[in-house]
Amino acid sequence: MAATMLSRQDIDALKAYVSAPGNFGQNQAESTVRLHVTHSNLKAEFIELRLDLHMTVDAVKYKLSSHCGTPATDMLLQLRNNNGTLISILTDSQRKLGFYSPQDGWALHIVDTNPNSLSARGWLEDTSKVQKYTMTDAEYRARDNTYWKYKEQKLKEDPEWTAEKELCMRRGIDYVAPKQREAVEDEDFMSAEAASMRVGERCEVDPGSKRGVIRFVGKCDGLPKGHWVGVQFDEPVGKNDGSVKGKRYFTCPEGYGSLLRPDKVKAGDYPEVDEFKFSDEDEI
């Protein structure tokens, strides 16, 4: 069978359709609503979704099941407003989501009715329940082709070697060593920047344009003076689970949390990045 070739006009039309409101783009159509999703067995508000008001409750459940691990048949959905007040229970699986009149920013709370669910008893969030493979320093150093041996060799060649310096060299750009960070003595350091942020707001973090949700705003014992912002990232690009030096400031899965200075965080309408959105350089 001969392959069908798309014309340039067809490709442009397809891109326009994919990026249009209500498809895979970031724009919001009139028939969609932005809802936070919470779960009876999971501590964190783990996602914000755009849902079509024409979807049936059953279809919404199946969509949610791919995000939380609870089968649609084990779900009871509750619609709650911005204050957490229960508005309605979505018991009729064939009714459209729009029948319940949800509003942007409200929450869909998933009640997992299965006592033996995978999400029960903290198995999806508490990493201490998972048996981990451990290796002694001696065992690691005895291995070949490890980062430790690579770093050791590089430092022999250049005592001032760093991973950042290596990346600059590979990219063909000049490396500028970071300045020595001055100690902060002001207890109210960056208080003005922190005052504009609220727990629960979506945000973007630089460098890297990493997106997530603000989970903490305030001062941190054991860290340099001033204000800090705790962020739960959408992806595992963080450094902790919301606790630092033995003190917990918020709760999220391990590797999803970080504490940053407020000037690194921008609060606003930063929905999760849509992996299916085409860029102008995409070809088919």
Automatic annotation (TrEMBL):
Any one GO CC term of the record: microtubule plus-end
Transmembrane segments: none
Annotated ranges, domain CAP-Gly: 225-261
Keywords recorded for this protein, A-Z: Chaperone, Cytoplasm
Location in the cell: Cytoplasm
Highest taxon listed in the record's lineage: Eukaryota
Pfam family, one: Ubiquitin_2
Principal place of residence: cytoplasm
A GO molecular-function descriptor: alpha-tubulin binding
Gene3D superfamilies, per the entry: CAP Gly-rich-like domain, Phosphatidylinositol 3-kinase Catalytic Subunit, Chain A, domain 1
InterPro entries with a match to the protein in the record: CAP-Gly_dom_sf, CAP-Gly_domain, TBCB_Ubl, Ubiquitin-like_dom, Ubiquitin-like_domsf
GO process terms (BP): cytoplasmic microtubule organization; post-chaperonin tubulin folding pathway; tubulin complex assembly
UniProt similarity note: Belongs to the TBCB family.
Name of this chain's protein: CAP-Gly domain-containing protein
High-level lineage: Eukaryota, Viridiplantae, Chlorophyta, core chlorophytes, Trebouxiophyceae
